[in-house]
Specification:
By secondary structure, the protein is α/β, with parallel strands linked by helices. It is built from ten helices and 15 strands. It folds into three domains: 130 residues, 3 Solenoid (Pectate Lyase C-like), CATH 2.160.20.80; 101 residues; 63 residues, no CATH class. InterPro entries: 5peptide_repeat (IPR001646), PA_immunity-related (IPR052949). This is Pentapeptide repeat protein.
Length: 332
């Protein structure tokens, strides 16, 4: 477990002063970013850390009354035995945050996005969580530009130049689109990540989400300078050379294989079927069939597997065909 740096009251007050200077003018101060820190028996009373960042931090027996953390990011944070009366954290991002034996009377968390937030043995009279929403942890699917060219049946929003933590990108975009009512009662639960021209890009697919496409189009234009947002249907033709229509694979005809009348030992039948496939230029199928048979563990299942690769015929049928061929030769 990482050892946390213990923050003093003097450091805290200095950080708040510089942070609020930064809020007024980014050139004049420094944003408060606390990582791997421990706050023990400190007074945050009336302090304003709006838009600050707290990652992997612990607050123990702190006075948080009337403290402000609106728009703040709290990730892997634990509050233990703190007085959080009238604590205000509106539109904040809570990720893996716990409150243990805290006084949260009249605390305000409205419009915040939540993932894995817990309250254990806390006083919560008058606490407001109005319009808070749970954010799913998005599934990150890495693809190549060539994979995108095969998605002619999909549509999505592509953002370009997405460096840093990909999950934070998913959380940020979901929060922004939920807050502006572009996403309705849903969130993007997966995203495709690809590299092109030296940039990391993200495609958010429209499938399985309910959204206002008109509002999203306006948002995309308004934020284009920041995110380089475009549609999948525009990006692929303009940047990747167009979509590729996948040709359906032609089904390869199963060769006849005389197994009826042979020794019924499954390995004997497998060997005959394998040789038949190889003779017909199907060595890969032969290998695949043998692997499936040996792992099936059941005789009847193994026979069914053989039947998927070859047409099972009778040894007698094969002999009859040979005799017919011999008769034709004799007559000539």
């Amino acid at each position: 477990m990482d050892e946390k740096r213990k923050v003093t009251q003097e450091e805290l007050e200095s950080a708040e002063f510089m942070h609020n200077k930064w809020i007024e003018d980014e050139k004049c101060g420094d944003r408060a970013v606390f990582e791997n820190c421990s706050f023990e028996r400190l007074s945050f009373k009336n302090m304003q850390f709006n838009n600050a960042v707290f990652r992997n931090c612990e607050f123990r027996l702190c006075d948080m009354t009337d403290a402000g953390m609106c728009f703040a990011e709290l990730n892997n944070v634990k509050f233990s035995g703190c007085d959080c009366t009238m604590f205000t954290a509106e539109e904040a991002a809570f990720r893996d945050v716990s409150f243990d034996k805290c006084d949260l009377k009249s605390a305000v968390f409205t419009h915040s996005s939540l993932r894995n937030i817990a309250f254990d043995k806390c006083e919560t009279d008058g606490m407001s969580m109005q319009n808070c929403y749970e954010l799913p942890e998005a599934e990150i699917i890495r693809v190549s530009p060539e994979d995108l060219r095969k998605m002619s049946d999909k549509e999505g929003l592509i953002l370009q130049g997405c460096g840093g933590d990909l999950q934070e990108w998913a959380d940020g975009i979901n929060s922004a689109l939920i807050d502006t009512e572009i996403l309705r009662h849903t969130a993007f639960e997966k995203m495709y990540v690809f590299e092109n021209e030296g940039h990391t890009n993200i495609m958010f697919p429209f499938e399985d989400v309910e959204l206002d496409v008109g509002k999203l189009a306006m948002w995309r234009l308004q934020t284009h300078e920041q995110f380089g947002g475009t549609w999948l249907s525009d990006y692929v033709p303009n940047r990747l050379g167009g979509f590729i229509e996948e040709q359906p694979a032609q089904e390869q005809k199963k060769p006849d294989c005389p197994l009826i009348g042979e020794d019924s030992n499954i390995f004997n039948l497998m060997g005959i079927a394998s040789k038949t496939l190889k003779r017909n230029g199907m060595a890969e199928q032969a290998k695949e069939m043998c692997e499936r048979i040996t792992s099936s563990g059941d005789y009847n299942k193994a026979l069914c597997i053989i039947g998927e690769y070859v047409n099972i015929t009778s040894v007698d049928d094969d002999m009859d065909e040979s005799e017919d061929e011999g008769m034709e030769v004799t007559m000539n």
